[in-house]
Amino acid sequence: MPDLDTLLEPFRFRWRIQMRWSDMDEMKHVNNAVYLTYFEEGRLRYLHQTLSIPYRDVDTRMIIARNTVDYIVPLFFTDEPYLYLRCVRIGNKSFELEQLIVNEKDDQRKLIARGSTVMVTYNYKQNQSVPVPDSWREQFLQHEAFVEEKK
């Protein structure tokens, strides 16, 4: 695996995770299931604030097809975690997001977890998956340093 600086280089989105005491488990670290909540919070901020992709009042939305998480080291309440997120692939009806959780405490960075989420564009009125809207595709391609595009 490349060093952390090299790994973080292509990421343009960074968000400070706000941990809650309730995120901890009896082992006194963040519970594994909570990482998906952190990914979700960051994903919503990335899609809506960074790319201006609407969430409401549109027929085409997105649903999760797959989440993966690689847990590298535990995250503790006294840590200072940040979520790095980027789109790495756009297909015809889906796109894939890569997510890293990095502890940036005391001017040192340490990789905590790495994950990916595959999102499918979905039309709820038609009740089926649909092609990624061209406007979304353009925003991903304009914002990201590299996106693998498959049609």
Task: Describe what this molecule looks like in 3D.
The chain has 151 residues and is of the alpha+beta class. It has helices at residues 4-8, 34-50, 134-143, and strands at residues 13-16, 60-71, 81-90, 94-103, 110-123, 128-129, 148-149. It has a single domain (4-149), classed as Hotdog Thioesterase (Thiol Ester Dehydrase, Chain A, Roll). The protein contains 3 helices and 7 strands. Strands 1, 2, 3, 4, 5, 6 and 7 form a 7-stranded mixed beta sheet that branches.
Question: What attributes characterize this protein structure?
Answer:
151 residues; 36% strand; alpha+beta; Thiol Ester Dehydrase, Chain A; seven-stranded mixed beta sheet; 3 helices; 21% helix; single chain
Quick structural summary:
The chain is an alpha+beta fold and 151 residues long. It is 21% helix and 36% strand. It has one domain: Hotdog Thioesterase (Thiol Ester Dehydrase, Chain A).
**Element pattern in H and E:** HEHEEEEEHE
The CATH homologous superfamily:
Hotdog Thioesterase
Structural class: alpha+beta
Strand residue percentage: 35-45%
Mean pLDDT: 92
Number of helices: 3
Number of strand segments: 7
**What's the CATH architecture?**
Roll
**Rg from alpha-carbon coordinates:** 16 Å
CATH class: Alpha Beta
Basic shape: globular
Q: Which helices and strands appear, and what pairs or packs with what?
A:
Elements: H1 4-8, E1 13-16, H2 34-50, E2 60-71, E3 81-90, E4 94-103, E5 110-123, E6 128-129, H3 134-143, E7 148-149
Parallel strand pairs: 3-7
Antiparallel strand pairs: 1-3, 2-5, 3-4, 4-5, 5-6
